[in-house]
């Protein structure tokens, strides 16, 4: 786990997606500080495109879980499940959503314009990675998820976003219970090459 004194390179390379967290609450001042600092991500417009909804109280987490479950019912995720399997899955989701200290939904502005939408998602992804790294610096684990519910317009509305916003991911935060091993990255020669001068 990275220490606060470690370099940016160490933070970037040591950060892992943490899927199993302790249920110890996180200090909300730290979360607000992280979000404030993460907002120094680059963006290409006059307005920062990201917006965040936080679920950290028992009531907020219950609501978040219920909306996720309702969304999965609506979009047919459980269609092929037996009642027994559905109940089991429901309980594991409940455990995850209610046991995770802080969940964050990150949305970005939609302009219905190819270039602006591309830049909006790009900037918000930079923001999300800033959040992950700033969490890691404070020994807080994070995982960025893109589960099917984030694309469900009804869910987006229920979370309080507008029809001019789309969700880029959910982030689930907590002190790590288990940190996975790093997935090996490809070597540079597999994905870096020179421009092909004179390519036809
Ligand atoms: C856009 C995006 C979507 C992701 N969605 C999920 C997801 O839905 N579920 C999940 O467990 N991890 C998700 N991840 C995390 C990746 O699985 C993880 O970053 C990858 O395996 C590399 O591991 P590392 O982050 O520990 O280096 C996502 C990451 C990104 C960037």
Largest sheet: 4 strands, antiparallel
Portion in beta strands:
15-25%
Helical stretch count? 7
What class, by secondary structure content?
Answer: alpha+beta
Write up this protein:
The chain has 200 residues and is an alpha+beta fold. It has a domain at 24-57 and 101-176: NADH Oxidase. The chain contains 7 helices and 6 strands. The chain has helices at 8-14, 28-38, 58-74, 83-99, 114-137, 153-158, 188-191, and strands at residues 20-21, 50-55, 102-109, 141-145, 165-174, 176-178. The strands form 2 sheets. A 4-stranded antiparallel β-sheet has the order 2-3-5-4. Strands 1-6 form a two-stranded antiparallel sheet. Helix 2 (28-38) crosses helix 5 and helix 3 (58-74) runs antiparallel to helix 4 (83-99). The protein is globular, with a radius of gyration of 19 Å. The relative contact order is 0.22. The mean pLDDT is 95. Residues 12-175 form the Nitroreductase domain. Belongs to the nitroreductase family.
Quick recap:
The chain has 200 residues and is α+β, with helices and mostly antiparallel strands.
List keywords for this structure.
four-stranded antiparallel sheet, binds flavin mononucleotide, globular, alpha+beta, 200 residues, single chain, NADH Oxidase, 7 helices
SSE map:
Layout: H1 8-14, E1 20-21, H2 28-38, E2 50-55, H3 58-74, H4 83-99, E3 102-109, H5 114-137, E4 141-145, H6 153-158, E5 165-174, E6 176-178, H7 188-191
Bound molecules: flavin mononucleotide (FMN).
Residues 16-17, 19, 143-147, 169, 180, 183 line the site of flavin mononucleotide (FMN).
């Amino acid at each position: 786990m990275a220490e606060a004194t470690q370099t940016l390179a160490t933070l970037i390379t040591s950060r892992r997606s943490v899927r199993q967290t302790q249920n110890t609450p996180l200090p909300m001042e730290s979360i607000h500080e992280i979000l404030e600092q993460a907002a120094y991500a680059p963006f290409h417009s006059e307005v920062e495109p990201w917006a965040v909804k936080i679920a950290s109280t028992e009531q907020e987490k219950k609501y978040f879980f219920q909306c996720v479950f309702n969304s999965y019912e609506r979009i047919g995720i459980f269609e092929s499940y037996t009642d027994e399997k559905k109940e089991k899955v429901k309980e594991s989701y409940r455990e995850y959503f209610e046991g995770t200290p802080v969940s964050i939904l990150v949305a970005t502005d939609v302009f219905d314009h190819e270039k602006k939408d591309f830049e909006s998602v790009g900037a918000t992804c930079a923001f999300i990675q800033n959040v992950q790294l700033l969490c890691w610096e404070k020994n807080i684990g994070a995982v960025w998820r893109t589960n099917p519910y984030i694309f469900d317009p009804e869910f987006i509305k229920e979370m309080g976003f507008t029809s001019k916003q789309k969700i880029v991911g959910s982030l689930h935060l907590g002190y790590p219970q288990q940190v996975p091993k790093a997935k090996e990255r490809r070597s540079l020669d597999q994905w870096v090459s020179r421009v092909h001068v004179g390519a036809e």
